[in-house]
């Protein structure tokens, strides 16, 4: 049984923020000055969704907002748009993740795929409506498919190396009693 101590929860929240900021740092490093014909996956979105499904107590909404807003600002995206969409997506996934109803990984991956696809479509539509310049459709599609394909690796990394496993029914009761 995994620990649900407040210290462990705070440590994992700090770990989430550190992983997100490390991802931002390495994404911003000027390693290649040539324009790429492909887009990397959105690892922060994958991380937020994986942790929201597995351990929602590790990633409160305020932490997701802080991390995603910082990413929006540093990546020169419209501030708050992708943040809002990711928060809504994570909250939708969190509402579906019930400890008493065990979800297979295939069902989890399918629901994450649908949420990532919806986020991509709504983001592009919103940018189009307001006339904000956006990446070509092919790059958005590549990023979406890369993010979907990377999700199992992020789950494997989170579960194997960081110990972010699904909440058991007993752990969920302990956390609910503390609120």
Give structural notes:
The chain is mostly helical and 179 residues long. The protein is built from 7 helices and no strands. It has helices spanning 6-28, 43-54, 61-74, 81-96, 105-129, 137-160, 169-178.
Tags for this entry?
mainly alpha; 179 residues; single chain
Secondary-structure map with pairings?
Elements: H1 6-28, H2 43-54, H3 61-74, H4 81-96, H5 105-129, H6 137-160, H7 169-178
Gap between N and C termini, in Å? 20 Å
What is the number of helical segments per DSSP (H or I, 4+ residues)? 7
Inertia-based shape: globular
**In this structure, how is the largest beta sheet organized?**
none
**What is the CA-atom radius of gyration, in angstroms?**
17 Å
Instruction: Count every beta strand, where a strand is a DSSP E run of 2 or more residues.
Output: 0
Helix content range: 55-70%
SSE run: HHHHHHH
Number of domains: 1
Mean pLDDT over the residues? 88
Derived structural class:
mainly alpha
Proportion of residues in β-strands: under 5%
Q: Which spans have pLDDT < 50 for at least 5 consecutive residues?
A: none
Q: Summarize this, please?
A:
The chain has helices spanning 6-28, 43-54, 61-74, 81-96, 105-129, 137-160, 169-178. With 179 residues, the protein is an all-alpha fold. Helix 4 runs antiparallel to helix 5 (105-129) and helix 5 packs antiparallel against helix 6.
């Amino acid at each position: 049984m995994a620990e649900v101590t407040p210290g462990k929860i705070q440590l994992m929240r700090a770990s989430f923020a550190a992983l997100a900021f490390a991802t931002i740092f390495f994404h911003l490093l000027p390693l290649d000055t040539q324009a790429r014909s492909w887009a990397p996956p959105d690892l922060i979105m994958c991380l937020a969704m994986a942790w929201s499904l597995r351990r929602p107590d590790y990633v409160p909404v305020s932490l997701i907002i802080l991390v995603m807003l910082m990413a929006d600002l540093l990546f020169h995206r419209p501030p708050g748009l992708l943040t809002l969409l990711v928060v809504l997506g994570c909250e939708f996934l969190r509402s579906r993740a019930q400890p008493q109803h065990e979800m297979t990984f295939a069902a989890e991956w399918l629901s994450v795929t649908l949420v990532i696809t919806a986020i991509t479509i709504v983001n592009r539509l919103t940018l189009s409506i307001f006339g904000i310049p956006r990446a070509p459709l092919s790059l958005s599609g590549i990023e979406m498919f890369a993010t979907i394909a990377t999700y199992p690796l992020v789950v494997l990394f989170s579960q194997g190396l960081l110990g972010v496993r699904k909440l058991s029914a007993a752990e969920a009761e302990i956390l609910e009693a503390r609120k």
